[in-house]
Structure formats: structure tokens, C-alpha cells
């Protein structure tokens, strides 16, 4: 369970993320993840579970208090005890209608260990319930991250499309002069204009996709991101290897809860001692020969031992042991699958880093060719189709570099989520 100090720290972190995330119209991925968790409807369930657990603990604690009860009885019986010769000495027989009203206070002694064990079970079960919600909320991080990197990727592609338009327009400007003076055909100019329209069409699709991603991200984080809001590209991350997923804490809490429940069986099988005090008024009271209503009291030590529990306790412990084994198996399966994902993602990250290095070399070469081709196009050494091909190749190279750069950050973030470490 989250203690008061940890809760205050979470609130301060949340406020810090909100202030940082909105500074100068910039938004960070970490801020979006914090906002998404705070905005998700299931977070209400987390708080309700916490309150319910506190009430349950309070009720269990009250089991240590003295148990007070009030009882009464009115009866009529067919016969009563008589002493032979009692009429001679003037002793009247007890009435056949009898009444009793009394109160009893019982203070458990050995039951206190059972109550303490139940409190530990309640605390552990509360952790299980809250960690189950935390696991569900953790999955929101993957969806928000995908939207965040989807926006970054599409924005990078949009930026490259605009660069391609600039290269095409530079070619149009040179061909337009040649057409004006009759040294080039108008059809040559139209080739470049048609290519510009194709890139503008691609820009429209990219703008629509960014808008769609942004609206979905708005719904997740509960905030309005405008077109001027800049999503900050995350820094390249250092890869860690220690798995710290909430699922592991959930498995451990389940195992602990089953162990506590198994221990409770042994404690319930022990003899139960308690102090009691009973006081009231009855006819007859403790003196059954008196037919007058009289007050009375009784106090002492009481023993209760239900031996029938031993019939099923052994099997019940075996059931809890089997359940623990099943949870252990689930935990090992989760770790196995997580490690497989880590191996695959590590290989993908390495491959992407190598591809980016090649992309950078290709982009540098393609851009040199574009610069050279502008002069060749103006001098009529190459055709408009040749220039269009050069620009398209350079555009594709830049698009690949942007795609692989954002994809590398996405893979690193995905690895971080898979491992569960805050890197």
C-alpha cells in the first residue's frame, strides 16, 4: 500500500510534470504518461480500493475490543426441581414460569493472534487489488507512447516532404526561366509541377494523420494539444536489464497472501481462551431454590476448541500450496516471455542503430547529387524527369533517416516499458 509520504511525493511529481510539460508550449513524453494515468477512469477504482481496505482493517482491529451482548429469556416448563419435605420447613417450590435478562462481556485472549493474522491478510489482499489496477494502468503507457511517437514520426515525415517541395520548386524556378526564353518545353515544367502536387497531396495526408493522433492523445491525457504544441523528442536512452514490472510485485503479493491464509488455518485450530463477565437479573437467579427475582453475576475464563477443523486443515493447506505453485509458474512464464521480448527488442535496437548510420551516409550523398543536379537542370544537361528522380531519391533517403531515428527512440522506449525501469 502507498503510505502518506509516498502519496505526497506522487502529487508533487505530478504537479512538477504538469508545470514542466506545459512550459513554452512544449510537451514531454513522461508528462503525457503521468497525465494519462491520472486521467484514466480506472484510477478512481484505485482510490476506492484503498478506502475499502482501510475500512476493512478498521473492522478487523475492532475484533480486539470486548464483545458485548444482551440476552433475555422467558420460559414455562412442565416441572421444577423440588426438595422432599420442603413444605414442612416452609420452602416454596420454584415457579414453572421463569425469566432471565442479562448482559455478557467477553474479552478474547488467544483470538488476538488470529485477528493480527487477518489484518496482515487484509493488507496483502489490498496490495493485490491495487497492484492489479496498477498493471492495467501500466498498459496505458504503451498506447500513449505509440500515439506520441506516431505524431513525432509523421511530423518528421512532413518536414521532409516540405524539403522535397523546396527542391522541386527550385527546379521549377530554373525551368520556368528556360521555358520563358524558349530553351525548354513547357511539358518539362509540367513534370515538376505534377510532382509538387503529389508531394502536397502527401502533405495533406500527413496533416490529417497528425490531427487524428493528436485528438486521440488529447483524450488519453485529458488535455488539449494545439497545432502549436511541440512534442519534445525523447533523448536516446541507456538500456538496462533489471526487470521491475508491476506484474512481478503482483505475483509476489499473491504468493504472500496465500502463505498468510495457510498460516491462518493453523492459528484457527488452536484452543481459544477468553475472559468473560455475565451479570443480570433472573427468577430464579443462581439460587435455584429462590423464587424471587434476584441480581447475579458470573465471571471467569472460558475455553473453546473446535476439533472438527483438523478434519480439513491438511487438505486446505495443500490447496493453498498448490495455488502458490500456480502463481509461481505464472511468474516464471511472465519472466521468460519478458526476457524473450527484451532479446528481440535489443536486436532490433542494434539493427536500427546500424541502419541509421547507413541512412546518414546515403542522405549526405543524395543531397550532394541534388545540389549538383540543380545546376545541370538549369544548363540542360539533365531532363526534368532526371531531376525529379534525383529529388525523389533524396526525399526517400531523408524519409528513411527520419523514420529510423524515431523508430529507434520508440524501440528504446518500448524496451524501457518492457523492463519496467525508469531510465
Walk me through what this model shows.
- The protein has a single domain, classed as Outer membrane efflux proteins (OEP).
- Helices cover 67% and strands 12% of the residues.
- It has 8 helices and 6 strands.
- The longest helix is centred in the middle third of the chain and has 70 residues, at 111-180.
- 19% of the residues are buried.
How would you write the strand order of the largest sheet? 2-3-5-6
Strand content: 5-15%
Q: Helicity range of the residues? A: 55-70%
Decide which structural class fits the backbone.
Answer: alpha+beta
Please tally the helical runs, counting DSSP H or I stretches of 4 or more residues. Answer: 8
Structural shape: rod-shaped
The overall pLDDT average reads 81
Largest sheet: 4 strands, antiparallel
Number of domain units: 1
Under CATH, the topology is which? Outer membrane efflux proteins (OEP)
Q: How many DSSP E strands?
A: 6
CATH first level: which class? Mainly Alpha
Rg of Cα set: 40 Å
User: Which architecture name does CATH use?
Assistant: Up-down Bundle
Order of helices and strands: HEHHEEHHEHEEHH
Low-confidence spans: pLDDT under 50, at least 5 residues?
Answer: 1-23
**Straight-line distance between termini:** 24 Å
Look at the structure and name the CATH superfamily.
Outer membrane efflux proteins (OEP)
Amino acid at each position: 500500500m502507498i503510505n502518506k509520504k509516498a502519496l505526497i511525493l506522487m502529487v508533487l511529481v505530478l504537479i512538477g510534470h504538469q508545470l514542466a510539460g506545459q512550459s513554452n508550449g512544449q510537451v514531454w513524453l513522461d508528462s503525457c504518461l503521468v497525465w494519462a494515468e491520472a486521467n484514466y477512469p480506472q484510477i478512481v477504482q484505485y482510490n476506492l480500493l484503498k478506502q475499502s481496505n482501510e475500512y476493512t482493517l478498521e473492522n478487523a482491529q475492532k475484533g480486539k475490543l470486548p464483545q458485548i451482548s444482551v440476552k433475555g429469556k422467558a420460559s414455562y416448563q412442565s416441572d421444577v426441581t423440588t426438595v422432599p419435605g420442603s413444605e414442612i420447613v416452609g420452602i416454596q417450590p420454584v415457579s414453572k414460569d421463569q425469566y432471565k435478562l442479562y448482559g455478557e462481556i467477553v474479552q478474547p485472549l488467544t483470538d488476538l493472534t488470529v485477528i493480527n493474522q487477518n489484518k496482515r491478510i487484509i493488507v496483502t489482499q489490498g496490495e493485490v487489488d491495487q497492484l492489479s489496477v496498477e498493471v492495467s494502468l501500466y498498459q496505458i503507457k504503451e498506447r500513449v507512447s505509440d500515439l506520441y511517437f506516431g505524431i513525432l514520426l509523421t511530423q518528421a515525415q512532413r518536414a521532409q516532404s516540405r524539403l522535397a517541395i523546396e527542391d522541386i520548386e527550385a527546379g521549377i524556378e530554373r525551368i520556368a526561366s528556360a521555358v520563358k526564353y524558349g530553351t525548354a518545353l513547357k511539358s518539362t515544367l509540367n513534370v515538376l509541377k505534377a510532382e509538387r502536387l503529389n508531394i502536397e497531396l502527401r502533405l495533406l495526408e500527413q496533416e490529417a494523420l497528425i490531427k487524428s493522433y493528436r485528438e486521440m492523445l488529447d483524450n488519453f491525457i485529458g488535455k488539449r494539444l494545439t497545432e502549436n504544441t511541440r512534442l519534445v523528442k525523447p533523448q536516446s536512452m541507456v538500456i538496462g536489464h533489471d526487470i521491475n514490472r508491476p506484474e512481478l510485485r503482483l505475483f509476489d503479493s499473491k504468493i504472500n497472501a496465500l502463505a498468510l491464509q495457510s498460516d491462518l488455518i493453523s492459528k484457527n485450530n488452536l484452543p481459544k481462551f477468553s475472559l468473560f463477565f455475565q451479570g443480570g437479573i433472573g427468577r430464579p437467579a443462581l439460587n435455584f431454590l429462590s423464587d424471587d427475582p434476584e441480581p447475579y453475576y458470573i465471571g471467569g475464563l472460558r475455553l473453546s476448541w473446535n476439533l472438527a477443523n483438523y478434519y480439513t486443515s491438511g487438505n486446505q493447506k495443500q490447496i493453498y500450496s498448490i495455488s502458490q505453485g500456480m502463481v509461481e509458474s505464472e511468474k516464471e512464464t511472465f519472466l521468460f516471455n519478458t526476457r524473450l521480448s527484451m532479446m528481440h527488442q535489443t536486436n532490433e535496437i542494434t539493427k536500427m542503430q546500424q541502419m541509421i548510420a547507413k541512412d546518414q551516409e546515403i542522405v549526405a550523398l543524395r543531397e550532394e547529387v541534388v545540389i549538383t543536379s540543380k545546376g545541370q537542370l538549369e544548363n540542360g544537361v539533365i531532363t526534368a524527369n532526371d531531376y525529379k528522380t534525383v529529388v525523389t531519391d533524396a526525399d526517400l533517403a531523408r524519409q528513411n533517416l527520419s523514420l529510423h531515428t524515431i523508430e529507434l527512440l520508440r524501440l528504446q522506449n518500448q524496451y524501457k516499458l518492457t523492463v519496467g525501469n525508469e531510465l
